[in-house]
Amino acid sequence: MKKPYFLLLALGFPIMSMAQVTFTATNYNQIPSGWPSYNLATVDMNGDYLDDIVVVSATEITILYQQAAGGFTSTTITTTNADYTPDWSMAVGDIDKNGFNDLLYGSGGGVTFMKANATGTAYTETSFNEYVFSQRTNFVDINNDGHLDAFVCHDVAPNVYYINDGSGNLTFNQGGIGDHAEGGNYGSIWVDYDNDGDQDCFIAKCRGGGSSASIDELHQNDGNGNFTNVAVAANMANADQSWSGAWNDYDNDGDMDAMVGASSAPNGETGVHSLMRNNGDGTFTNITNGTGWENNNTLSIEHVSYDFDNNGFADMFGGSDYLAGGGGKFMYNNGDMTFTAFVDPGVNISDASIGDLNNDGFLDLRDGQTVYYNNGNNNNWIKIQLKGIASNFNGIGARVEIYGAWGKQIRDVRSGDGFAHMNTLNVHFGIGTATEIDSVRVLWPSGHVDVVDSPTINNDVTIVEGADPLSLIEIGNQKLELFPNPATVSLSISNVGLLNVSELTIYNMHGEKMLTQSRNFETINVSTLAEGAYILMIQTTDGEKYSESFVKKN
Amino acid sequence: MKNILYLLGIILLVQIVVTIPSCQKDDPDISPIGQSEVTVDLSTVPYPVLSDYKFFRGEMKYQIPSSDVIAYAPATPLFTDYALKKRFIWMPDGEKASYVADNKVLEMPVGTVLIKTFYYKNVLPNGATKIIETRLLIRKASGWIFANYKWNDEQTEAYLTTSASTVPISWLQDGEQKSTNYRIPSETECLICHKHQGQPVPIGIKPQNLNNLFKYTEGSRNQLSKLIQAGYLEPGLPANITSTINYKDQSKSVDLRLRSYLDANCAHCHAEGGHCDYRPMRLAFSETVDPVNIGLCVEPDEFVGAAYTSIITPSQPDRSVMHLRLSTNQPNLRMPLIGRTIVHEEGLELLEEWIYSKKDCH
Prior knowledge:
The complex is a heterodimer of chains A (554) and B (362).
Chain A: H1 3-11, E1 23-27, E2 38-43, E3 52-56, E4 60-66, E5 72-78, E6 89-93, E7 102-106, E8 111-116, E9 123-127, E10 134-140, E11 149-154, E12 160-164, E13 170-174, E14 185-191, E15 200-205, E16 217-221, E17 227-229, H2 231-234, E18 244-248, E19 257-261, E20 274-278, E21 284-286, E22 304-306, E23 315-320, E24 328-333, E25 339-344, E26 353-355, E27 364-367, E28 370-374, E29 380-387, E30 399-404, E31 407-412, E32 427-432, E33 439-443, E34 449-453, E35 460-464, E36 474-475, E37 478-479, E38 482-483, E39 490-493, E40 501-508, E41 513-517, E42 523-525, E43 532-540, E44 545-552
Parallel strand pairs in A: 29-35
Antiparallel strand pairs in A: 1-28, 2-3, 3-4, 4-5, 6-7, 7-8, 8-9, 10-11, 11-12, 12-13, 14-15, 15-16, 16-17, 18-19, 19-20, 20-21, 22-23, 23-24, 24-25, 26-27, 27-28, 29-32, 30-31, 30-33, 33-34, 36-37, 38-39, 39-42, 40-41, 40-43, 43-44
Chain B: H1 2-19, E1 56-57, E2 64-65, E3 70-72, E4 84-90, E5 113-123, E6 128-140, E7 143-151, E8 158-161, E9 165-173, E10 176-184, H2 187-193, E11 195-196, E12 199-200, H3 207-210, E13 213-216, E14 219-222, H4 223-229, H5 254-266, H6 321-327, H7 345-357
Antiparallel strand pairs in B: 1-2, 3-4, 4-5, 5-6, 6-7, 7-8, 9-10, 11-12, 13-14
Helix pairs in contact in B: 5-7
């Protein structure tokens, strides 16, 4: 099946079509609208991977659950009173791994967490006393311990973050990830820009008066949760007034590029946005001129990147050209690192939350009561849905790759993208006219790698961490295998001597650590485990991690 | 002149002492002649309680200034949820401020204290006056520092506070009940407006805002003259000072009233060099002679709705972004961003009047 594509490539035919999409607006009166409601999130809330519509106020959460058969079922849940409401942004993630997403509200005065109960039927708030002039909020596993932490940009002081103890209890921290005394922090995007498997943090910054607080920051994670601002060396120390950066691999070369979006042109200059190509060596080159971006003078506080037309190349949405005839501003990626501007008069908005609200594989936009359904085209696609085990439940921070005739496409799973909204946690790829995907590879924050070969296109694929491990483990034709499987008393590992093992860990399917063993790696006693499915993780002395699932039976 | 004031103050104190002998021991009349009643030791400020400074005489809640504590008020105040304000200035003996420019804060000597008390009248349920906080700006050798004092419920003392807090309050505003969660800001919040190149600075005490009459106990006088006479300001000011006016003064032009209002309420961020100078408005009084700087027919940076085609659209408030931002309480949309949670109806009406007065883009 692969050969025809290579032939086409060889003949110089483009295999990806460039097909801009249009959107059709549909209004839903049951969506609460208007302040003090906050219409910021389009994301699955109940674990069925169908994106839901989420609207909150200080005392209510309204969820329009997307139904498998199409349409929505609306529920309004009264919550305990949130001290702080998401005046500036909202993030969503499951901080206690109970299968129901929790919410993070960023207000101008502080931060509130709204935690779901074990059935997703009630929510309880936890607020922090510390003053935070919140801007972008994120859920991200900052210390990579398998539990989601929270990060909040501070407008007027050093950034703050909240570390999760593993039970969903959070501790306030300030300092270490963006410490400019005047703040200026607007758009934090957690992204593995240096492909080293940990989460780095880019901060789009803004401040008047010639303050150095306007200079963007790029905080490189050393893998141990220590962050260093490398923006100057990386050529990302941009002093433009930016509230958001749109990160994606725009040229499909395997690393994350950045479009740093300007929110103002203080001296009336044009060409204010910066398209920064990742050189793959930890540095970026400003390639704006000649890409089409130099002619985009639409200012916006929001910029996000998705493949709206499913042509296999990431596009950008942000801003509105309402004076030039009206409409949301799209920059469609032509596939050769040039972009074509498209103003959609049917999308008379400048920002939206983004998800697939009719589960057709084409990403839709939502603003207030209006869903702008993507009319789609003939391009093919795949949707990857993650369930973390050793990593956080949502797989936030995972790198997802698809391989095929085009080579490689990558995405990062983010909670908190652009400036204010919370978008789908499912990972979307368009593949143009390609009809086959060789494999999907998930690099989990834990270090696990799962691989699914030849997934069905135009479909969704759910990948459970450790369930499709990268060849457990073939070294010189010798395999590591678990036996017996199912196991009752003890589980043995064949050829375990091929690895320099430092520790064995068994997780249940909720990601809870059940057993650890730090010597005698040939067998592990599983007699105390309840019946069910488990994941065995093998960690080596060089920090590599391998995992395999097994079943316990009594 | 200052000595005469001292003398007057002491005479006044003596009267108090005579009438209320039980206070004799605590009264500050034991100060040697020529020395201020006020105590500001720069090595130990901020003090734990407001009364330590001895800025006021008698019951502190009446805010009767000590002899060399001088009341002042800018022509147009900043709106902060209808809070009423009393402002005072004190300087060490023999020290003077100097004029820099009409639109620049006075250059004040080390030791200067600016005192600003926030209170409400007709507070529900019983219509009392309630003082919420007193903010100090103290000029140390290293620069200005903030010190906020939160008043107790008994209104007998105010305590230094470094963290933010909110005080729920309801009152009658011209007969209409209003409520707010009044916010006492943290130092970080103070700095959002009170800063220049990251350093704390005063805002309102500029010649342009003080070149007007103020009712002192001895009668109405020009505030700049009063400061000069009190020995707090170097004499020899320019003959003509380009001055703001009281935005409520119906005898003045709508343009002058709005420009004064914008200066007081917006220019700490929206002026050249300000926190938000990356947006196209320039709203300092010295910059708004040109209505383009107010945003007349200027395209906004940020899309807030398809109808809002300009920051100010002539004669169309409902197509003017500034009008939207002053008329909403939605936190990510309202202006100013901090310091108000309810709409200032009178300010909004003035803006409407100004927008209607504009028939074209000039």
